[in-house]
Amino acid sequence: MNRILLVEDEKILAKNIAYSLEKDGFLVDIAFSGEDGLEQYQQHTYELLLLDWTLPGIDGLEVCRTVRKESNIPIIMITAKEELVDRVVGLEVGADDYMTKPFHQRELLARIRALLRRSQLVRTENEESRPTWNGLELDKDKLNILYKGKSTPLSGTEFKLLDLFLKHPQHVYTRDFLFETVWGMSEGYSDRTVDVNISRLRKKISELSGLKTLSAVRGIGYSFGERE
């Protein structure tokens, strides 16, 4: 049974979400503050984190940053903020998905299942050799990127993106293809969702290795490595 940590200070909403998810077979723990959420996260093992943006004390963004420093657990931000810049900020600090209140429970369930499927595929994929390029290497067991003895953790989304790029360097991928392949969904496509995750991955690679690897192809999408 998948165990989810829900960090939400609106108690009625939190209990409604938990009730809905538990009916679909999930085990849900609830925290009503950022501090409580971090404490529960450190004490137990979870498969996914549902995290409200606006929390008393430590807010959701800070909780997300803290968790992401040590874990690749899938994270969905839930918030009343509707502006594009807010969604981008949430993704930039490490969230894998973003939902704006009010939302339908079925959509939340679909996104949770999609993230859990993707996370499981990343962890269970067992290939004989690691994809490599110019010294960059993926550690499938730890979801890390390696370079000359150094490593950096990747989120599940970043890992899937880089795995695809490393297997097919120089290939140009459209944004909608990346979204459908990596996010596992054909609906809800957004250029910004892809762009923010690519930007975050590019930054991690650059800080780890100094390599400039991901380039935007105007009007199309992205390419990895040196194009012929």
CATH superfamily heading of the largest domain: Response regulator
CATH architecture of the largest domain: 3-Layer(aba) Sandwich
Mean of pLDDT: 85
Helix content: 40-55%
In spatial order, strands of the major sheet run 2-1-3-4-5
The CA-CA distance between the termini, in Å, is 48 Å
Largest sheet: 5 strands, parallel
**Class by helix and strand content?**
alpha/beta
Q: Report the β-strand fraction as a percent range.
A: 15-25%
Query: What is the domain total for the residues?
Result: 2
Question: Unreliable stretches, pLDDT < 50, 5 or more residues?
Answer: none
CATH topology of the largest domain: Rossmann fold
Instruction: Give the topology string: H per helix, E per strand.
Output: EHEHEHEHEHEEEEHEHHEE
Shape: globular
What is the number of helical segments per DSSP (H or I, 4+ residues)?
8
How would you describe what is shown here?
With 228 residues, this protein is of the alpha/beta class. It has two domains: 121 residues, 3-Layer(aba) Sandwich (Rossmann fold); 98 residues, Winged helix-like DNA-binding domain superfamily/Winged helix DNA-binding domain (Arc Repressor Mutant, subunit A, Orthogonal Bundle). The protein contains eight helices and twelve strands. The strands form three sheets. The chain has a five-stranded parallel sheet, sandwiched between helices. The chain has a four-stranded antiparallel sheet with strand order 6-7-8-9, with helices on one face. The protein has a three-stranded antiparallel sheet with strand order 10-12-11. The chain is globular and about 55 Å long. It starts with a strand and ends with a strand. The mean pLDDT is 85.
